[in-house]
Amino acid sequence: MTHAHITSWLITIVLFFLAVSMERQGAGKAKIVQMVLRLFYILTIVTGLLLLHSIASISALYWLKALAGLWVIGAMEMVLAAEKKGKSAAARWTQWVIALAVTLFLGLLLPLGFDLF
Q1: Distance between CA atoms of 39 and 64, rounded to whole angstroms?
Q2: How far is CA 13 from the centre of its chain?
Q3: Per the UniProt record, which residue ranges are transmembrane?
Q4: Quick one: DSSP state of residue 111?
Q5: pLDDT in tens, the chain (117 residues)
Q6: pTM of the model as a whole
Q7: Contact 36/15 with Cβ under 8 angstroms?
């Protein structure tokens, strides 16, 4: 399940950058990419919940990582909304980077992650 989760969030990030790029260009297909992106949000959340469910003893850090992951998805939506409205998205991009960094750090720190830290 770990590989499915990693694959889903990697595809989500790629689709996010594609959606932002298409939104900036005013491409008509941006809406379709955003709908596919939202589908991958759901896949990422479901695989994350399945990973949480598979852990025998869940520490508070796992719950914190889950909340940080939801924060990443929320920040993605805020960036896309700001881009669509033509507003400055600098603060939202900063929030997304911080949320992603926290989530990746916790994901790599916890026992189910890779042994980097």
Answers
A1: 23
A2: 6
A3: 1-21, 39-59, 60-80, 97-117
A4: T
A5: 788 999 999 999 999 999 999 999 987 888 999 999 999 999 999 999 998 888 878 888 999 999 999 999 999 999 999 999 989 999 999 999 999 999 999 988 887 766 655
A6: 0.87
A7: yes
